[in-house]
Specification:
The protein is an alpha+beta fold and 213 residues long. It has 2 domains: 73 residues, Glutaredoxin (3-Layer(aba) Sandwich); 122 residues, Glutathione S-transferase Yfyf (Class Pi), Chain A, domain 2 (Up-down Bundle), CATH 1.20.1050. Helices cover 54% and strands 6% of the residues. It is built from 9 helices and 4 strands. Strands 2-1-3-4 form a 4-stranded mixed β-sheet, with helices on both faces. Helix 4 runs parallel beside helix 8.
């Protein structure tokens, strides 16, 4: 059986999990501890998840490459190139604020043990600053996210710039799903309905790996 190595919180991993659920693919779910460097290095030579290892043992990184490999029949439509470039730029901006807001909360979910929690916080703090400071600036990050989501809502027709579900909707929902872990964060009614529609479409269950073993 093929195996997906992933982190539960990781939006790029969630992209692949949503795709696998949408395509009804059977696979072995393997959540790695964040301080496990040896497994990804052994599989692909870099500490980067998600990793998809097929039945033959061949392993690959990069979420969109994995999705393309899995969806050989193009069951998930893609956006036009120009719209996709705009979306990627928007996601990059959104993602920075999402990570700044959510990381201090992600580390206290069942995904992390003490050693991986300490490793994650030490590594991410070098780039983003101490988690205590990120938590103190929560209101700023929330304001930026809400502002960006208002722009996104204006492009829902009812999916992102489309009357049909596309890969863009998986990409957006994957970046936002980790915010459900943040206490008291509230999506607008429109955004919540949109995310629930993506969940229904993909049959996605964020918490499933926590209870798998």
């Amino acid at each position: 059986m093929s195996t997906l190595y992933h982190y539960v919180h990781c939006p790029y991993c969630i992209r692949v999990r949503m795709t696998l659920a949408f395509l009804d693919e059977n696979y072995r779910d393997q959540v790695l501890q964040y301080d496990d460097e040896s497994t990804p290095l052994k599989l692909t030579g870099v500490k980067m998840l998600p990793i998809w290892q097929d039945k033959s043992g061949k392993a690959m990184n990069e979420s969109l490459d994995i999705i393309k490999h899995l969806d050989k029949d193009n069951r998930i439509p893609a956006l036009k190139q120009a719209d996709n470039e705009e979306l990627e730029n928007w996601l990059s901006k959104l993602g920075s604020n999402v990570h700044n807001l959510a990381m201090p909360y992600w580390v206290w979910t069942p995904e992390f043990k003490e050693s991986s929690r300490n490793y994650f916080e030490a590594k991410k703090s070098k780039k983003r600053g101490p988690f205590k400071e990120l938590a103190k600036n929560r209101n700023h990050f929330e304001e930026q996210i809400i502002k960006d989501l208002k722009y996104f809502e204006s492009n829902l027709t009812p999916w992102y710039k489309s009357e049909e579900f596309t890969l863009a909707d998986i990409m957006v929902a994957a970046h936002l799903w980790g915010l459900f872990v943040v206490p008291e964060f509230r999506f607008s009614d429109k955004m919540h309905s949109y995310l629930m529609a993506v969940k229904s479409k993909t049959k996605f269950d964020y918490h499933a790996p926590f209870w798998a073993n």
